[in-house]
Amino acid sequence: MPASSHHTPTFSRRQFLATVGALWLGAGLGIHPTPAAAFDPQRLRQSMQQQYGQAGLSVLEEWFNLLQQLQNQDVQAKLRGVNDFFNRRIRWIDDIQVWGQEDYWATPLEAMGKGQGDCEDYSIAKYITLKQLGVTSQYLRMIYVRARIGRSQITQAHMVLGYYSSPDAEPLVLDNIVPSITPASQRTDLDPLFSFNSDGLWAGGSSESRADPLARLSRWRSVIERMQTQGFI
To answer: PANTHER family in the record, alphabetically (predicted)?
Structure first.
């Protein structure tokens, strides 16, 4: 979903359900993660240089500086720093305009290289960056929601990142629409559908994981594979 400073497209009910339904298409429940490679800054630099040239490489170096600046900060400072970094450096543009596809989940390198992306791209980039800063996946989930537009009853598929101080805590919401990090109870415009991270997938507000996200979310699996090639994991 777009940042508030940009045009807000609306989804028909059929488009919305198709978007959500497509996320659940996997190749079966027997898929398991491939062994992750180590975080490799030099390979990341090479990947960025090859795909996006010097402009992309400059943003990547800013990202490395962010990691260094926030490494020893407390969790709240990390959340604020990462949220602000991507909200300022990525301009909301619809996938069809950026990638020529209706729904493409970009890696952080692709989002930074393009300088453009949509709600999934913001959420994934923030998630991966916070994990690199030592905030483990047990505290983080990408949350797929139905977002109400203004005071109308029009809704749109949207994704945000949630930080949970404990498994059953109310999450803090990191979003590209509202720049401040707010408790979920204050985001009455968002209705959660499901959430996921590297370890599990939860329906609605459930506290029990129901599936392997790599098996059930084909686009997440694709992002993981590309991040491994690029040098993130």
So the answer is: BLR5470 PROTEIN, PTHR39327
